[in-house]
């Protein structure tokens, strides 16, 4: 085991033998490095003022990611190169093309949010296949909030910057790759173990080492992307004496497809899994696009969204409707269970001390299966769902429903199937009478609460209306409305 965290900040190598487990990248930059260009806004991963870029070498290429520094722990930077707004000027002092565009297009008003916007814009330029259309720019900048409402000049600046040529990072790409390759060589497949006055950090070399670590300390906190755990620290002010960071465990970062379906490892982010999931479940791609922001999806993991057991997580109801299977491990023992059985009650999951989620498998829908998923929230972008409904109906050649799986998030204390509505549909032709029966049964399936996101009445009403929407889109002779994918109809959806 190594006994230090190693990463680059700009061109400088840092080797930290004493890294407090919950020290955030934001606090380290501002308080210990004096780099105040990275701003603290919300301190919970919503506003983007703290956006930084992290670059890693993956499968022989450099991958640039925009991340929220406020909910990323420093220990999670091991093996990476971190860039802040202070790193954007070229060595000769020339402004980065994004900075220059922001100046020329008057994209800054009070200026507080500007460094975060600039970092997101630079990262978007680095994304493979990045384009400058309005939709792509909206997606790239959805995680950055301007309180002066200066979005129009910022978008103009983004379009201008996308037309600019190479930047100094392109010229340094080979040097950056060499630095990161050297860090990998020094790591030599070993894990990291730190211990200090503030607590311990463990970065397992593989899932076997992770299993051993959790058997030895079942109370340790597993951190993959920290988009949830980070808030325990910044908002809940919790002390986490032992963090086990799994985000870079190689055998947990795999996506494989076989006869059973698409298997997604515990450390795979939503951003990395999105295309594979969308190819299997087209509506799921649109749901993932609305999970948090680019910065959040670059860190948040598919399995972490499951493991934390939130009743309003967007992934679980989609995967439950698809018939997903969860893979858990404790020591050398492994087991699988239907995903819906993992959630027992509010805050309680079927996971023993020392056990961890290893992967989730999503089966491919059958050739006659209709799959739809709908997210309902107050804001379109970057908002927690009031409820989310996911539907998988299999029809025979005569249009009779032979199989039904319906799951909701936000309707109960856990993500849960609507078994009464499912029973009301099976064996019936998919027609108006079946829809009416399912709507009536759905009302008895759930007893939702009223909270800040929606009332009991609203949730019941909208859940039933989502069934009607499903019928309008999939019943024989139906024509999908153009609003189904938020106005972005694709040819495949017609």
From TrEMBL:
Gene Ontology molecular-function annotations: xanthine dehydrogenase activity
Keywords per UniProt: FAD, Flavoprotein, Iron, Metal-binding, Oxidoreductase
This enzyme's EC code(s): 1.17.1.4
Top enzyme category: oxidoreductase
Residue intervals of the FAD-binding PCMH-type domain: 194-367
InterPro entries: 2Fe-2S-bd, 2Fe-2S-bd_dom_sf, 2Fe-2S_ferredoxin-like_sf, 2Fe-2S_ferredoxin-type, 2Fe2S_fd_BS, Ald_Oxase/xanthine_DH-like, Beta-grasp_dom_sf, CO_DH_flav_C
Keyword rRNA processing: no
KW Oxidoreductase (keyword) present: yes
Domain 2Fe-2S ferredoxin-type: 3-88
Domain of life: Bacteria
NCBIfam families xref list: xanthine_xdhA
Protein name (record): Xanthine dehydrogenase small subunit
Source organism of the structure: Nguyenibacter vanlangensis
Lineage: Bacteria, Pseudomonadati, Pseudomonadota, Alphaproteobacteria, Acetobacterales
Gene: xdhA
């Amino acid at each position: 085991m190594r006994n230090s965290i190693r990463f680059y900040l700009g061109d400088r190598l840092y080797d930290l033998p004493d890294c407090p487990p919950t020290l955030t990248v934001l606090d380290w930059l501002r308080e210990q490095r004096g780099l105040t260009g990275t701003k603290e806004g919300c301190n919970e991963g919503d506003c983007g003022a703290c956006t930084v870029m992290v670059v890693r070498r993956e499968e022989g290429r450099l991958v640039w990611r925009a991340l929220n520094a406020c909910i990323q722990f420093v220990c999670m930077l091991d093996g990476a190169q971190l860039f802040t707004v202070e790193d954007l000027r070229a060595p000769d002092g020339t402004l980065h093309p994004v900075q220059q565009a922001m100046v020329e297009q008057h994209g800054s008003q009070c200026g507080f949010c500007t460094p975060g916007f600039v970092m997101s814009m630079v990262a978007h330029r680095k994304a493979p296949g990045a384009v400058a259309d309005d939709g792509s720019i909206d997606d790239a900048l959805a995680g950055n909030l301007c309180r002066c409402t200066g979005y129009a000049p910022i978008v103009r600046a983004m379009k201008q910057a996308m037309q600019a040529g190479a930047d100094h990072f392109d010229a340094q790409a080979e040097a950056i790759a060499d630095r990161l390759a050297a860090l990998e060589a020094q790591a030599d497949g070993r894990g990291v173990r730190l211990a200090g006055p503030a607590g311990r950090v463990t970065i397992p070399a593989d899932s076997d080492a992770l299993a051993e670590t959790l058997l030895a300390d079942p109370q340790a906190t597993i951190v993959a992307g920290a988009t949830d755990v980070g808030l325990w620290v910044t908002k809940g002010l919790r002390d986490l004496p032992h963090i086990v960071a799994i985000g870079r465990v190689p055998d947990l970062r795999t996506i494989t497809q076989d006869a059973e379906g698409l298997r997604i490892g515990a450390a795979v982010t939503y951003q990395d899994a999105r295309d594979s999931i969308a190819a299997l479940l087209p509506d799921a791609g649109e749901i993932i696009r609305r999970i948090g922001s680019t910065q959040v999806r670059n860190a948040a993991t598919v399995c972490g969204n499951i493991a934390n057991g939130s009743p309003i997580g967007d992934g679980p109801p989609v995967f439950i409707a698809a018939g997903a299977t969860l893979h858990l491990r404790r020591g050398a023992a492994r087991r699988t269970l239907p995903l819906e059985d993992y959630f027992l009650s509010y805050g309680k999951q079927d996971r023993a001390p020392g056990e961890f989620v290893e992967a989730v498998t999503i089966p491919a829908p059958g050739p006659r299966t209709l799959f739809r998923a709908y997210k309902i929230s107050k804001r379109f972008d970057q908002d927690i769902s009031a409820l989310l409904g996911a539907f998988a109906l299999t029809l025979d050649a005569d249009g009779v429903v032979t199989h039904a799986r319906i799951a909701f998030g936000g309707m109960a204390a856990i993500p849960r199937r609507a078994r009464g509505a499912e029973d009301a549909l099976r064996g019936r032709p998919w027609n108006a009478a079946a829809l009416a029966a399912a709507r009536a049964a759905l009302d008895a399936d759930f007893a939702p609460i009223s909270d800040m996101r929606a009332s009991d009445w609203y949730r019941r009403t909208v859940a039933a209306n989502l069934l009607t929407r499903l019928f309008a889109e999939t019943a024989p002779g139906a024509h999908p409305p153009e609003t189904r994918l938020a106005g972005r109809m694709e040819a495949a959806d017609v």
